[in-house]
């Protein structure tokens, strides 16, 4: 059970190129790792197409369920960048041109000589949105209530995420112990289950390694907010492994 | 608009280890690519924890919306493998031990001498499930109605998917043209938009490349079921690029 003090999160990865298999998403894994370090529990992520109705539906489902929602993708200057429109509709807000962002664009690109310049589309945001600084290019991300709208390009997204981290609510860190056992996981399943039953607040994961070129065995991961409980559950497993002459390697 | 003859799909990636950032999922990208080759349109994928209620909720939402649902993860012999139970509950079916799979396990592992052997848990399936052959290890995947339940270990999942491909309904293939333009995408946004408006059945995607070590510019992807339309839209862009002295490289 997740303690009530743990903030939760969902990701909404927006992009036809990922669903078509053309591009492998990198953003979810980065965000999963960084959220874990903040003590924020990532509960799900969804990858959906550049489709306005699909974005609105997912956004409204997720933002009511979790402390934070992070979106990636679809905030550029081209016709297929529809995330801003979808976010505005999901929150029932108008879109307005942000004067601060507009001024930044005009100062960086002095050749902008019309309000219709496509670069200025990236200054259009849902009204009342708070900016998220972009350390690489000019267009910022933005925040509306508990939704953080980030770029899809990994380098830019990562910079934006780093800039918004200070304002996130932090949670308690999970204490983790990991051991690799050189044995099929089925051979340790009954013992693991009895440890799991004895320590219900410790999350015990069992991940067999099956790749031909890798050592075969099982990686066991013990996690929990109570370090003492995790340690006790883990020690019970290690003791059993030694008694059973199972080769182990803590990771 | 997707023609009605195009089968659709969703993925349900099940695994705490992915949400915690411990493991980077490889299965979604593999399946996205393989489904595209079959003419099956992947419409979304969700990554969720090893949580029975979360699996049931997602499964019931997705299986009613799409032609096919593919799940990965959670079908091993340990306590944290709960996908079978969740699938059975989602379809309101009992779990039964499959005699064919049980016999296969006993023949491969002659030391199995009890019905309680954890390896035999992998012979437990929702009643009426059809088996999906496993080319690497003994435990098969299975199918219930339009839901295909696959292993989480990538090598095993891939073998299972290859074995089930012949029974999938195939759709028309998307015709694709790709060009890299050495220019910021905002500089081509207006032309792209006018081409998109002229060819509404062609999906035009614009993907800027921003990585420091890579050539900066934009990858433009034209896709559609009507090859002639895709070709015409693409040629219009190429013509514009040449007139505007934009350096291009078709990919």
Automatic annotation (TrEMBL), chains A, B:
Coiled-coil segments on the chain, per record: none
PANTHER family: NICOTINAMIDE-NUCLEOTIDE AMIDOHYDROLASE PNCC (PTHR13939), NMN AMIDOHYDROLASE-LIKE PROTEIN YFAY (PTHR13939:SF0)
Residue ranges occupied by any MoaB/Mog domain in the UniProt entry: 10-171
InterPro entries named in the record: CinA (IPR050101), FLAD1_M (IPR056596), MoaB/Mog-like_dom_sf (IPR036425), MoaB/Mog_dom (IPR001453)
Organism of provenance: Caedimonas varicaedens
Pfam families per the UniProt record, alphabetical: FLAD1_M (PF24102), MoCF_biosynth (PF00994)
Protein name per the record: Putative competence-damage inducible protein
């Amino acid at each position: 059970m997740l303690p009530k003090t743990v903030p939760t999160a969902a990701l909404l990865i927006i992009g036809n190129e990922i669903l078509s298999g053309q591009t492998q998403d990198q953003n979810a894994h980065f965000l999963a790792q960084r959220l874990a370090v903040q003590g924020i529990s990532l509960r799900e992520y969804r990858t959906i197409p550049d489709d306005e109705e699909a974005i609105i539906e997912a956004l409204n489902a997720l933002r009511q369920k979790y402390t934070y929602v992070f979106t990636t993708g679809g905030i550029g200057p081209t016709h297929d960048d529809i995330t801003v429109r979808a976010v505005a509709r999901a929150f029932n807000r108008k879109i307005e041109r942000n004067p601060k962002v507009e001024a930044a664009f005009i100062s960086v690109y002095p050749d902008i000589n019309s309000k219709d310049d496509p670069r200025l589309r990236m200054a259009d945001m849902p009204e009342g949105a708070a900016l998220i600084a972009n350390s690489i290019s000019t267009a910022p991300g933005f925040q509306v209530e508990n939704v953080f709208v980030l770029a899809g390009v990994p380098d830019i997204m990562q910079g934006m995420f780093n800039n918004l981290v200070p304002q996130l609510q932090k949670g308690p860190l999970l204490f983790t112990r990991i051991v690799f056992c050189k044995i099929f996981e089925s051979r340790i399943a009954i013992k693991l289950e009895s440890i799991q039953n004895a320590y219900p607040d410790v999350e015990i994961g069992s991940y067999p390694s099956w790749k031909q070129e890798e050592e075969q065995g099982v990686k066991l991961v013990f996690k929990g907010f109570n370090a003492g409980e995790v340690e006790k559950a883990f020690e019970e497993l290690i003791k059993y492994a030694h008694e059973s002459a199972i080769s182990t390697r803590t990771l």
